[in-house]
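Task card 7
Instruction: Convert sequence to structure tokens.
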Amino acid sequence: MEEIGKINIVTNPVGAKIYLNGQLQTRKSPSLIKNMPVGIYKLKLMLNGYEDYEELIIINSNETTDVNVIMKKEHVEILEKEELQSLSNDFIENNDKHMLQILQTNEELNNQIILLRNDILKMQSEITSLKNLGMIGFVIILILIYIAYKKAKE
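Output:
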């Protein structure tokens, strides 16, 4: 006949998941687990918002092993008002610096666009002037040909 015992698990607060030797049990704390074979077990209790609890427990024949655990809240860093204000100021200052850089870059780009636009307008004006010179040059060449033709006829 196999020797068996019991384990009685109580937690504060209640509702912790129970693991025995890494195996999740079907019930949460508080729980009385019967018919446990005698031996050494690794108990792990887990509850959201609380630190995990681990302990080695011994189950003895025809005995109830009591485990009473007050779960410890997970450590949450609480910042003082001055620290929060300092972090907030740093964030705002860095954000302002980045916004200023973006605005300066935007202004520089706008200035470059204006300069390029002015260059394009100048080039269009020069192209128009060259076209006009081309017509004048064509007319001058026609006149010179006419003059040469007249002289050749004389």
